[in-house]
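Hi support team,

I've been running sequence recovery on a batch of backbones for a student project. Most finish fine, but this one hangs at about 90% for roughly twenty minutes before it completes. I'm not sure whether the input is malformed or the queue is just slow. I've pasted the structure tokens below so you can try to reproduce it. Let me know if you need the job ID as well.

Thanks,
M.K.
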């Protein structure tokens, strides 16, 4: 497989070779045997942004590995949010650090819902939304996305009605931008959500971990900047955009009418993030902009490459061009691969069903199995295209070959 080409200089996705990536010990590269190309979990095949690496190197050289202090992370996010998204009302004193986005979501849900209350999710959606919500003793209600894979406000209205009937304090857990579809919700769509939530007395918690990854042509709208969202929360982090999942730290942000709720969060939650995590995430938001822009260009090129690869090698597989994230949600139902009802509960990410099982066994390409994303996921796979064009090309070529060689019982 070809290494980096001079013309691609600057694109973080073309720096590391497959051999270098295989030396990594993170789950993406260790879950499967070495002949498998891993395009599943949301890790990126990039080196660290120099601004982040420098900060970490300095801390290690200095032995600066104690506890975190101060509000630099929130200040850096505030500057980034004003600069990129025009979010001028961001208030550092309406934020708190949390260990990671999912833990932050659980802790915020504990503030605004009671055990047994309903939490609405827009399926298909990031599988831990199911597991973490139910492990916290709340009940998941699905409001499936529409056929265009965008938010379905009639489904939300109905789900909010059911959620109200189930318990006193329901919530909506929004994924903005949406994983796995890559949809970046528009302001008018979010305003309609806020209006519905207000009418039904539903508190909104918006997971904005993919926010910096709005791709050219799309504009990210922070939920807290939407009219009617004053009592909502957002959770964000530099972890997806700058590939910092191993350096945990995230921020919970409260709207003006949710700040009092946020102050009730138990103190120990803010003890979770590590000092190195906070340093890295702060550096990413503060000084990682130029690197991010090169990454976004690389991801934009990869999403176009993916379209042409699918057209050539897997013409029966369809998808909507993602507007953000580095995830493509591939509809494989027309491949004719059996899509019998999955045995697993939504949210059980460890198990593979068709067609992810088929592509792993026959193409040696690891993808995320659609069925664990909840209603609407069976027959789909999620492909992570935050990799080099060479690996992406090899993976889709292999998938196409496997589909062409399919036997009836496959
Ligand atoms: C939508 C979404 N939320 C949360 C997470 C996990 O974030 P964290 O590791 O900060 O909990 C991911 C990871 O891919 C994600 O896609």
């Amino acid at each position: 497989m070809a290494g980096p080409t001079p013309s691609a200089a600057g694109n973080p996705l073309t720096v590391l070779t497959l051999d270098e990536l295989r030396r990594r010990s993170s789950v993406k590269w260790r879950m499967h045997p070495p002949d498998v190309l891993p395009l599943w979990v949301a890790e990126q095949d990039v080196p660290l942004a120099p601004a982040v690496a420098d900060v970490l190197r300095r801390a290690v050289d200095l032995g600066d590995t104690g506890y975190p202090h101060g509000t630099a992370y929130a200040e850096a996010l505030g500057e980034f949010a004003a600069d990129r998204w025009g979010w001028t009302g961001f208030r550092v004193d309406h934020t708190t650090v949390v260990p990671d986005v999912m833990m932050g979501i659980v802790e915020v849900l504990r503030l605004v819902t009671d055990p047994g209350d309903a939490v609405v999710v827009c399926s298909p959606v990031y599988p831990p939304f199911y597991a973490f919500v139910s492990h916290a003793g709340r009940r998941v209600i699905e409001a499936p996305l529409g056929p265009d894979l965008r938010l379905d406000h009639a489904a939300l209205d109905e789900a909010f009605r059911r959620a109200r009937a189930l318990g006193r304090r329901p919530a909506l857990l929004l994924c903005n931008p949406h994983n796995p579809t890559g949809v970046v919700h528009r302001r008018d769509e979010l305003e309609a959500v806020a209006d519905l939530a207000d009418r039904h007395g539903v508190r909104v918690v918006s997971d904005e971990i993919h926010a910096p990854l709005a791709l050219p042509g799309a504009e990210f709208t922070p939920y807290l900047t939407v009219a009617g969202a004053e009592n909502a929360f957002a959770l964000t982090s530099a972890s997806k955009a700058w590939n910092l999942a191993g350096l945990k730290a995230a921020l919970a942000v409260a709207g003006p009418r949710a700040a009092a709720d946020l102050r009730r969060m138990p103190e120990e939650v803010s003890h979770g993030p590590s000092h190195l995590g906070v340093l890295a995430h702060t550096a990413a938001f503060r000084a990682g902009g130029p690197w991010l822009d090169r990454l976004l260009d690389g991801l934009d090129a990869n999403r176009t490459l993916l379209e042409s690869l699918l057209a050539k090698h897997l013409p029966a597989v369809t998808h909507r061009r993602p507007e953000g994230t580095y995830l493509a949600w591939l509809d494989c139902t027309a491949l004719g691969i059996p899509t019998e009802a999955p045995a697993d509960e939504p949210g059980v990410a460890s198990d593979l069903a068709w067609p992810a099982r088929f592509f792993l066994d026959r193409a040696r390409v690891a993808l995320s199995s659609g069925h664990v994303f909840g209603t609407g996921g069976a027959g789909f796979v999620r492909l992570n295209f935050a990799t080099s064009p060479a690996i992406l090309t090899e993976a889709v070529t292999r998938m196409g070959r496997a589909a062409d060689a399919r036997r009836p019982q496959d």
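--
Follow-up from support: It reproduced on our side and the slowdown came from queue contention, not your input. The first strand starts at residue 37 and ends at 38. No action needed from you.
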